[in-house]
Amino acid sequence: MDTYEDPATWGPEPVRPRWSLALKFAATLLVAPLLCVLWTAAAVVLFVVSLFADGIAAVSEGFGRGYVKFTGDVLDGIARLGSWCVTWPELRHEGDAAYYRARVEKVVGNWTERASAPRQPKKARPPVECAIPRRDYRGVGGRYVAEVALAQGWELRPTDVRKEVRLWWSAASRPQDASVTDTARDS
Questions:
Q1: How far apart (Å, rounded) are the C-alpha atoms in residues 80 and 91?
Q2: Cβ-contact 127, 169 below 8 angstroms
């Protein structure tokens, strides 16, 4: 059975010991600035190298795509190094289900507001897909995210609830939106 179909994985995460969180928070205060400097330095170096690699990319499309993928992988890898970090709100509100419920409702509400905004001419379309990271719902579980999202018009997408809950704005696939775009295209 896939992870997104297993109901046991959709519950809240177990409460972490306070002492463990405090140690991770102290380590976060020391390591996070170093990770920020490392990420910035890598981004600058990759940008400078890309100026020279641009000449090769003009000849070879595969090289350009590969370099962009390499750049993304390097920067994402550095960002993942800090995945164990503990923030101040996590330290303060570990085990507080009411805090996490409010946090989930706020995050899903913000995505709903963005997705339901009318499309503006010459602007990017509103987002129709989003991912709510585990950090936002660990105290109440992915099931609560799904309940709040479904109540606001989102559809659940295949997801690994141990990392994030992926959602699709269901109003984006309604026929009325297609007729609006067809009318705008005909004009």
A1: 20
A2: yes
Q: Are 10 and 143 in contact (CB under 8 A)?
A: yes
- Nearest Cα neighbor of 160 from 133, 136, 121 is 133
Cα–Cα distance, 29 to 24 (Å, whole number): 9
Instruction: Please tell me whether the overall predicted TM-score, pTM, comes out greater than 0.85 for this model.
Output: no
DSSP track, 98-162: HHHHHHHHHHHHHHHHHHTSPPPTTSPPPP-EEEEEHHHHTTT-HHHHHHHHHHTTEEE-S--TT
Radius of gyration of the chain (CA): 21
Is 89 within 8 Å of 102 (Cβ atoms)? no
* Torsion sign (Cα): 86, 90, 94, 97: negative
Mean pLDDT confidence for 109-136: 88
Mean pLDDT for the chain overall = 84
Q: Which amino acid is at 170?
A: S
